[in-house]
Structure formats: structure tokens, C-alpha cells
Amino acid sequence: MKIGGIDISFRVKQGVPITEFVLHALRAFWPDYIFQNADEAELRENDDPTLWLYDTASTEFFVYRDREAAESWKKNGGIPENQNLMLHFLIDSDSSVPTVAVQFTMVVGELTGDVENFIQDLKRSLRRGATIPSNAVAV
User: Fold this and answer.
1) Dihedral pair phi/psi, residue 116, rounded to 5°
2) Is-contact 132 28, C-beta < 8 A?
3) Are 58 and 36 contacting, i.e. CB atoms less than 8 angstroms apart?
4) Which of 11, 65, 76, 139 is the most exposed place for a label (fewest CB within 10 A)?
5) Contact 69, 81 (CB under 8 A)
6) Within a 10 A sphere around the Cβ of 126, how many other Cβ atoms?
7) 44-89: per-residue pLDDT in tens?
8) What SS3 state is found at 90?
């Protein structure tokens, strides 16, 4: 599957649960998002308890705007109409190199105003290392 897109990378303090922050932030951006671990074919709804129990440790994953977007990506790949219907996230997990920060990369199709706002909100949350409300986890 050809993904393409624009890479946005920045450093995040070691120990911040990046994937959890991303998934919580996505609820406001794409309320019906679908999650896919890069190592699996299975798609998970954002209210699926197994997503919150197992996949928050993922270091590479895709998030689709909704079920229709996920199906379109599966059928058609990275055609122009799909470019802003999926986000690709990568977290550098090289634990062999001691560091105080990890590299976080988000790949987007195009930097629209909504995408830029999402990125800025996510960056602010990650930099603060703000806590995620305990009642925000869907289990």
C-alpha cells in the first residue's frame, strides 16, 4: 500500500504514553476513528476495550477517520481522495540507545487547517505530559 504524505516529527519526553495521548486527542478530531496496528490486519473501533488494553503499547499504527475511510484505503490505497482520511504514527522505540526523549512522527496527506490544529493540540499535550483522565479510557 502506497502511503505518501508529509512527515511531521518532534521529540517527546521519555516515559510519556504517546499512543494514549494520540488516541485520546483523536476522539475530538475524528470521533468515529478506526485504529490499526501496523503489524496487524485487524481494525479496531475507538471504543473497543481491546484497543485500550493492548494497542496503547503500539509504536507504529494507522488511524482512519471512520470505517468508510478504512475500507476505502483497503480497496484503493493512497489515491488522492484518501490522503486526508488516514494518519500514520511512528514512535522510535530503540531502547538500546539511552535517551531522555523519543522521536515521534506523524504522517499526514496534506496540512489542512484542521490537521494543523490537531497537530498543535497534540504537541501541547505531549510537551506538558499532561495526565489523561482516568475516566477517559473506554473499557
Assistant:
1) -60, -40
2) no
3) no
4) 139
5) no
6) 20
7) 998 898 888 778 888 999 999 999 999 999 999 989 899 899 999 9
8) strand
